[in-house]
Amino acid sequence: MRVAVIGAGGVGGYFGARLAQAGHEVAFVARGAHLAAIREHGLAIESARGNVTISHATATDDPATLAPCDFIMFCVKLWDVESAARQIAPLVAKGGVAIPFQNGLASPEILTRTLGAEHVLGGVAYIGATVRVPGVIAHTGTMARLRVGAFPGGPADRAAEFVDTCTRAGIETELSVDIERALWEKFCFLSAFSGSTCLIRRPIGDVRGDPDVRPIFESAMREAWAIGRAKRVALADDYVARQLAAADALPADMTSSMLNDLRAGNRLEAPWLSGEVARMAAMAGLPAPVSATLFAAVKPYINGTRN
Known about the structure:
With 307 residues, the chain is of the alpha/beta class. The chain folds into 2 domains: 2-177, NAD(P)-binding Rossmann-like Domain (Rossmann fold); 181-301, N-(1-d-carboxylethyl)-l-norvaline Dehydrogenase, domain 2 (Orthogonal Bundle). Helix content is 44%, strand content 19%. The chain is built from 12 helices and 10 strands. The protein has helices at 10-21, 32-41, 81-88, 107-115, 156-168, 179-200, 204-209, 214-230, 239-248, 257-264, 274-284, 289-298, and strands spanning 2-6, 25-29, 43-46, 52-54, 58-60, 71-74, 97-100, 122-133, 136-149, 172-175. The strands form 2 sheets. Strands 5-2-1-6-7 form a 5-stranded parallel β-sheet. Strands 3, 4, 8, 9 and 10 form a 5-stranded mixed β-sheet that branches. Helix 5 (156-168) links the parallel strand 9 and strand 10. The longest helix is centred in the middle third of the chain and has 22 residues, at 179-200.
């Protein structure tokens, strides 16, 4: 199987390396020092599920240099979706399929508009992973799973093929019969998780354990859940309670990718997370004061702080 990983950060780097470890032909698209390290030393994964180094990883900063692929794991930051979608169009020319494994809700629509519905699936990744140093992905805890599915009228057979490929590679992967719901389930949690961890600049253990902060996390989730329900997404009545229980089981030192970016002075995805909750709530006439506050708290940093 030929796979291109567009954005070889925590998510793309980890799962792409696992596919390469299983013998698939994987090419990684990265930038800067991370790309240079992969080219020189390979891509290393540090994980309780087993360390691995892909010693001779194919890596580039230009998707145009790659041959058409069977699957594209689309993992760029949300502000790069439009431009990256145009760059990968030639890679799906021979029947390939792009699967966005990103935060937020916007990517599938943008990819569909650019590539065509027959070339797009939906994907959700559950993992705590980050680039510890260039060329090295650090996986926190043991959670590492994917959910993949086709949108109505989309290439359901390709979704099943990708799930089978990942499962055979030892990656816990679920074929979702309602990928829109799966995306919203992740979105409701992540918008609250990223916003609350950035608010106090601390990992999930501090968020869930502080009696003043935990209600902020819960309320932000509930605001996003209410919007999804208003849009007729089949989110469960007990969704928030179950997600709080799941958060209690996460490693206490798990951070959101947005907190990692905030600490590093990088751009933030807040406009597509808590900011998007606030925007959709205003459009729907629903209250979302907590999400609006979480967005406002990081708004001065959304373009990064590094000179």
